[in-house]
Amino acid sequence: MALHVYAIWEPMLPGDRRSDWDSHLLNDGRVTHLWDADRLSGQFFAERYEHRQHWVQWDAYYLFAPGTTWEEATRGLRGSGRTVIAHTGDLERQMAASVH
After folding, report:
1. What is the spatial distance between Cα 68 and Cα 74, in angstroms, rounded to a whole number?
2. Which of 1, 21, 46, 67 is the Cys-Cys partner for 57 at CB 3.0 to 4.6 Å?
3. E strands within 4-99?
4. What residue ranges do the domains of the chain occupy?
5. pTM of this structure
6. Contact (Cβ atoms closer than 8 angstroms) between residue 46 and residue 57
7. pLDDT score at 100
């Protein structure tokens, strides 16, 4: 299975700044790092998948089927969870299940 990760970083905690972010945290060629200073992606995910208005989702993962576009993202969702570190095992199981 081809894997691509989009890591979207948002300023959520006091002191979170793009200039201080360690871009080597996810040091893998399959990872694209993005900085979202306005937290628009967190608002999008909170509204679309958590059904929470006026909320910003962060420290979460969303697993989509290969080739899923934004327009069909609801149907393409294969798993999600938060926090990322606390649910690494869930992410691994969801990835394995989406292959079959």
Report:
1. 9
2. 46
3. 5-9, 31-35, 60-64, 77-82
4. 5-99
5. 0.83
6. yes
7. 60
